[in-house]
Amino acid sequence: MQISAFNEYYDKLTTVEKKNSPKELFYKGDFSLLENGRRVAVVGSRKVSELGIRRARKIAKLLVQNDITVVSGLAEGVDSIAHRTAIEFDGRTIGVIGTPLDKYFPAENKDLQDFIAENHLLISQFPENYPVTPKSFPIRNRTMALISDATIIIEASEKSGTKHQGWEALRLGRQLLIMENVLNEKISWAEEMLSYGAQVLTNDNFEFLIESIPYLTTKKEYVF
């Protein structure tokens, strides 16, 4: 069963947030995860390296330890690792998908998606029978940035769709944290994001930056 729960909160958004928000939001699971505490999106490459896997696990575990809900897009690679790590360490996670709630992409994540829908929170802005196209996923990234207090980019290539998430976070006034290895690869869009307020996560500062993530989505006392 799909439940739409966004319209009643729409009028409480700022002008910029309204412009970048869906008109409907469908969900399965624990809606209170969108009402309480901090939420951080963890995103990155689908074809993630071994180092990227370790980094994603390390970051997701630290978020759980700081009572922060881990948000991601249920794609293969970094997304799946972030969700599974949050679950493994008894944290909370939200899956924001680019398909209707009853569809699975990739199909290999069906069990993970069903588990999140049953025990955590699964959300989509696409109603049943809505056609899935490549443009659905950048649109999904905008919503994922909207509901998160910050976005962390773990690993990405020059052509990675992860850049859409980063730009949406900056556009919405959310904190954007990019792991140092992405900048070391001379990714042009990541370097440009630094001039718009993105911060670099290093081995020396990542714990401090994560612990100090602000409550940007709850400070105005509204929920999504």
Automatic annotation (TrEMBL):
InterPro entries: DprA, DrpA_SLOG. Residues 8-203 form the Smf/DprA SLOG domain. GO terms for biological process: DNA-mediated transformation. Signal peptide: none annotated. It comes from the Bacteria. Pfam families: DNA_processg_A. Gene3D superfamilies: 3.40.50.450. Belongs to the DprA/Smf family. This is DNA processing protein. It comes from Chryseobacterium limigenitum.
